[in-house]
Design a protein that fits this description.
This protein is of the alpha+beta class and about 475 residues long. About 40% of the residues lie in helices and about 20% in strands. Helix 1 (about 30-45) crosses helix 4 (about 110-125).
Length: about 475
Amino acid sequence: MSLTEETSTGGSYYQAHQKVYPREVKGRFATRRTIAVWILLGLFYGLPWLRWDDRQAILFDLPARKFHLLGLTLWPQDFVFLAWLLVIAALSLFFFTAVGGRLWCGYACPQTVWTEVFIWMERITEGDRAQRMKLDAAPWSNNKLMHKAAKQTLWIVFSLWTGFTFVGFFTPVDVLAEKMLTLSLGSWETFWIVFYGFATYGNAGFLREQVCKYMCPYARFQSAMFDRDTLIITYDVNRGEPRGGRRKGADPRAAGLGDCTDCTLCVQVCPTGIDIRNGLQYECIACAACIDACDGVMDKMGYARGLVRYDTHNAIDHRRTHVLRPRVIVYGVLLLALGIGFIVALAMRQPLALDVLHDRNVLYRSLETGEIENVYLLKLMNKDSVSRRFVVSVASERSDTGNDTGGYRLDPARPVFTVPAGEVFNAAVRVRKRAWDDSADANGQREMEERDEAGVSEVRFEIRAEHDPSLRASAESRFFAPRR
């Protein structure tokens, strides 16, 4: 069944999609939106080329499991910080939506930003709104083919550049560029460049407002965060109605009209194709293009600006707007607490970590000295920006100090390892213990004997920086021995 197949009553099950041709608009909000687009695109395309200490400043090195953020290197063990940032981002969206409506959608959403660029390329190749509509309605000709080919060329090149930049956050961009020039890209790199480029091409070039209207979940649950004190784009019905045309300089009140001239410019500039005069609609992305268009008409007619404006429902109804209200206060306090907590936790983050793996091949060895030996692989992670030397020590799991080793000793006795900055160093160490330890005091004798009889006891490894004992990390493992 076709999407536009008619019913027996002459209607249709679905409405065919009508392409939106947004008209170019100039004004204070259009200027701010353009500045936001330049800043965000500049960050996206420029950050991969930024250098920091002889490496790429922003790099998510998945094979090495390291995430470089300027001077900070995060490891999989630091995943909590990523989760923390995601919670802050979600709460920020709730906070700013409750206060200012869909500011994110109108100025910072990637779909909005890239759509602006694609529409700009469409304008320089096919002309303004009227010319684009005329070109699409015209039969195919050499002129139409030339304009369409020029637009598609710009779109495809820009989309592939976007895909290349995206992959450049995961593969060093200079290496990626060299591979592209020598046609030696790997299969996965090629796939993600094409995939992300195609996604950009499809979403920003063809789907556009349909992503915002039908695919974006935010458009569906935004109303749950709105109230009558939320700042939205609204049309002043009391001032604008009844709408109708008139001559410039004519008194609309004498003609029984409101300030709205019914020029429909607010509809023509809307990137989602809605009529803001019909009230708040979930398709509105709060880009404020309709405000700029209406303000321009009001200036020409000699009327006061603000027929279409940012405002609240309460202000429209001549009621007091409450900026500080319970939901805003709760969101703000939580956001502030999470932000401060994140900064403090990041500042107190230890720049080293330790993982211990027991040798899988042999659980233990019985030595001629009457000792039991276990072999371990230590993974020393130096998250700092400088190379460090670490001293390894071992103790009983129930020991609170490094002096009480619980009968364990390292061979060699005091291993020291140098770990370069931002690297993981693998070190094999041997731990020895007498087969049955009779050195425990009276209180710990029974526990020691029970553990020895089971053949398994607990051991704790600790590393500390050689010249900064405050930098230390520890990890536990098991020591295996024959049953008593």
